[in-house]
What we know:
The structure holds two protein chains of two kinds.
Chain A: E1 6-15, E2 18-28, E3 33-37, H1 44-52, E4 59-64, E5 67-68, E6 79-82, H2 94-104, H3 109-122, H4 138-150, E7 156-160, H5 168-185, E8 188-193, H6 196-202, E9 205-210, E10 213-218, H7 220-225, H8 230-235, E11 240-249, E12 254-257, E13 262-265, E14 277-282, E15 287-290, E16 300-310, E17 314-320, E18 325-331, E19 342-347, E20 352-355
Parallel strand pairs in A: 3-8, 3-9, 6-7, 7-8
Antiparallel strand pairs in A: 1-2, 1-4, 4-5, 9-10, 11-12, 11-14, 12-13, 14-20, 15-19, 16-17, 16-19, 17-18
Chain B: H1 5-31, H2 35-39, H3 45-78, H4 84-92, H5 101-110, H6 115-120, H7 130-155, H8 158-166, H9 171-200, H10 203-208, H11 215-226, H12 229-254, H13 276-304, E1 306-308, E2 312-315, H14 318-325, H15 328-357, H16 363-371, H17 378-388, E3 390-391, E4 394-395, H18 400-410, H19 412-425, H20 428-436, H21 441-452, H22 454-470, H23 486-495, H24 499-524
Antiparallel strand pairs in B: 1-2, 3-4
Helix pairs in contact in B: 1-17, 3-4, 3-7, 3-9, 4-13, 5-7, 5-13, 7-9, 8-9, 9-12, 11-12, 12-17, 13-24, 14-24, 15-16, 15-18, 15-19, 15-22, 19-22, 20-21, 22-24, 23-24
Amino acid sequence: MSVPHIKIANASKSFGPVEALKDVSIDIPRGSFTTFLGPSGCGKTTMLRTIAGFYNLDGGDIYIGDRLINNVPSHQRNAIMVFQDYALFPHMNIGANIAYGLKINKIPQEEIRKRVARTVQYLGIEGLESRSPGQISGGQQQRAALARALVMEPEVLLLDEPLSNLDAKLRMNIRAELRQLQKRLGITTIYVTHDQAEALALSDQIAVMNKGQVIQIGSSWEIYYKPKNTFVADFVGTANLVPGEVAEKNDRAVTVDVGEARLQVEEPNLKIERGERVTLCIRPETIQLSVAEAEESLNSFQGVITNHIFEGASVRYWIETGKRKIIADVFDPSDQGIYTGRVTLSVHPNKVHILSGASQGSN
Amino acid sequence: MLREPLLLATILIIGICLVLFVLYPIVRVFTYPSLKDFVEVPRNIRYLRAIRNSLLMVILSTSTATLFGFLFAYTVTRTDVPLKRVFKLISILPLFSPPFMVAFSYLMMFGKNGLITAHLFGLRVSIFGWHGLWLSETIAFFPVAALIMEGVLQSISPSLEYAGRNLGATGFTLFRTVTFPLARPGVAGAALLVSILILADFGNPIMIAGDFSVLATEAWLRVEGWGDVSGAAVLSSVLLLPSLAIFLIQRYWVGRSSYITITGKLTQGEHDPTKWYIRWSLFSFCFLVSVMIILVYVAILAGAVVKGWGFDWTPTLEYLRSIFSRSPELMHSLTFAVAAGFTSAVIAITASYLVSRKRFPLRKLMDFACILPAALPGIFFGIGYSIAFTRPPIDLYGTAVIIILSMIFWNISMGYQTGIGAFQQISPSLGEAASNLGAGSMKIFWQIEAPLVKTSFFSAFVVSFIRAITTLSVIVFLATSNNVVATFTIMNLVSDGFYGKAAALTTALLLLAFAVLGLAKLLIGKRMELFRI
Lengths: 363, 533
C-alpha cells in the first residue's frame, strides 16, 4: 500500500451555511474496503458523492491514482455508485437497467450481452432480466443495483448504505457475500454506513466521521479497541467511559485513580503526566465478574447488580459501583447462571484503553 | 353506526345534497331533450361545425399549452436559467384570474383597434378568430400544465438522474433516456387535464373567437339566440362525453402507470451547469411568455383608467369610481363566492372525512359524486341547474340560491381531493386512540381530525372562492337581472364594446381574488396547498 489508490486531501464543502466537509483527508489503498462511518449528517454521504462526482469541492483535491479528478465529470471517473434506494430506472426492465451504462458508453451489442450475462450469473439473479424493478424483491433489487455497477468493471465501487433497506437476516447474508465478492474482484471499494457493526464486519479500514470531520482512521481492530476519543468509543460498540486521574506512571503502565479503585493500564510510551485527568474506555465484554468476595487484587472493584438482560449468547449486566453504572457482558452464561447482588469486577490491564483528549469528558 | 345518530344524519344530509345537486342536474340534461334531438345531431351543420372546431382547438391548444408548461417546469426544476423564480411567480398569476381575462386583454392589445397592433405598429390585422383563441387558451391554461409537471419533475428521485450520469449519460442523452421517460406519464396526465379545461373553455371563445363557434359557445347561442334549451342540452351532452372519457382515462389509467415513488431521502441536488445555448434559449422563451402574461394584466389595468380604449386615451377614474360606489354585480360576486366557498369547503372536507374514515353503504357513490364535478364542463353544469331548478318542483329561478348552489357543487372536487389527501397523511391510529378513550365519531372528527385538517379546509375555501368568483360558464345560464354577477356583466360589456367599464370590473374582481389569496397566505402561510390535481 505504497501509493494510495484514492487520495483525498483537505476536502471541504458547504451547502449554504452548513459545512458538510471540513478539511477531510483520507488515503485509500488499492483493492481495499474502506468504510466512512458516522451518524447521519456527519458528511459521509457528501464525501462519497463528491468522489462520485455529483458535488464539486469548495476546497481540497481528490486523486484517483495520480490523476486529479476535481473537475472530471462523474461519467469519466469510472467510480460507479450503488444508491441507498438503488435508483433502478423504473421505466426499464432489469436487463436494460444493467446494460444501461454499457449502452451509453457504446460498447458493442455482443459484448454487452456477454458482460450482462456474466454479471447476473455472478450475482445469482439470472432469469430476472425481463422483470421490472417493481416486480422483484428488495434483495434482488439490491443485487440488480450492484450488477449495474459491477458490469461497468469500475475502477472504484461506491456503496451508499446499500443494505439499509433490507431486513436484518438478509442484511447479514448479503454483508458476507459482499465482502467475499469484493475480495475476489479486488475492486477498491468505499462504503458508507451509520451501522457500526456493519463497518466493523466489512472493512479493511474505517474512517469515523462526525460533523464534517474525520475523527479517526484505522482498522476495525484499532477503531474498536483503541478509539481516539470519547466520540469514537461511544459510537462504535458499547463502552464504559470512566473518568479518573493519573496516579502513577512508569514506562510500561499507567495507574489511574477512578474513585472506587486504582486501575492499571498497559500503555507503554504514553505521553501523559501525573495528576492529569483522563477518561478510560472499558468494553463490557472485557470485564470479568465473580461472586467471590475477592480480596483487593489488581484492577478489581466491587459493585451491585441492578439489572440484567439475557441475550442468549451472553448476559448484559448493569452494575452500580458507588460512583457510576458499569455495563458488563458475560458470554456463555450456561455454566454459572445469572448473577445477582454483590459481585466483583475485574479487568485486565491490557484491555483498558486511555482516551486522548479525555479532559473534555464524556459527551 | 346506528348508535351514532349524528353521524348517520351527517351521512344522510351530505348524501342527499350530492344526489340532488350533483347527480340530478346531470341526469336532467340527458332526459330533458327528446331522443329525436340527439339523433338529429349528425344532420345539423352548425352542430357539426362546433364539434369540429372544438376538436381542432383541443388539439392545437392542448399541444402548445403542454409544451409551454413542460418547458417552464423543466426550466424551474432542472436548470440554472437566470430569473427562473420570477418566471415561475408570473406563470402562477393566471391560475387566480378569471379565465376569460386573457382573451379580453388580447382583444384590447392585438384586436382590430388594438393598442399594439393598430396604434403602435399601425397594422390592420386582428386577433379575432381561431388563432386568437389558440393564443389565449395557450396562455390561460399552460400554467396548469406547468404546475402539474413541476410536481412530476420534482418527485423523480434525484438518485435516478445521478445514477444515469454516473453511468455515462450526460446532457441530452440523460434527458432522453432518463428524465423524459420518467416524466412521460406526468406529461400525459397534464395534457389530458389541460384538454378537459380547453374543451370546457367558454370565456375565451365567447370573447375572442367571433363566429368561430365551439361546443360551449354554440350551446350558449342556442339559448341566447333561439331560446332552444333542448339544443343547448344536447350540445352540452356532446361536450360532456369526451370530457368524462378523458377524465376517467387520466384518473384510472395514467394515474396508475405513474413512476412516481417516494423513495429514500431526497438529497440536495447539484445539477450540471446548463449548456449556454440551452440556458439562453429557455430564458428567451420564458421571458417572452412572461411578457405575454404581464401584458394581460397591463391591458386590464390600463383599460380601466382610459376613457375610450382605441379612440380616446384620456386618463379617467370614472369607471373605477362607479364600479366601487355602486355595482350590484360586484357585491353579488363577493357575497355569493364567500358563501359558496365556505359551504363548499365544509361539505367537501366532511365528505372526505366520511369516505376516508367510515364504512357505510354507498360510500363509493359518495366518492364518485364528489369527484365527478371536476370532469363536468361549466356549461354543462350550468345548463343542468337551469333545467333542474328553474321550474317546479324546485323553482329557484333568478335567486341568489341557485347561483350559490351551482358554485358550491361545481367546485366541490378540489376541496374534496385536498381533504382525502390530508386524511391519508393523518394516521388513523390517532382516531382509534381517541375512540379507545371513549370519544364518539363526531368528537373524534371535531377534536382530533378537524384541527389537523384545518389547513386543508382553508385551502379548499380559497380555491372554491376563487373559482366561484371568476367563473363565467357555470352562471351564464342562471344569471338574471336579480342575481347577476360580475363575470356575466363583463361578458356583456365586452361584446357591446364597453371596454373601459369591463376592464374596471375585471380589475375589481382581480383585486378581490388576490386579496383573499393574500389574506389566506398570511393566515396559514406556506402549508397552503392550492391546486391539488
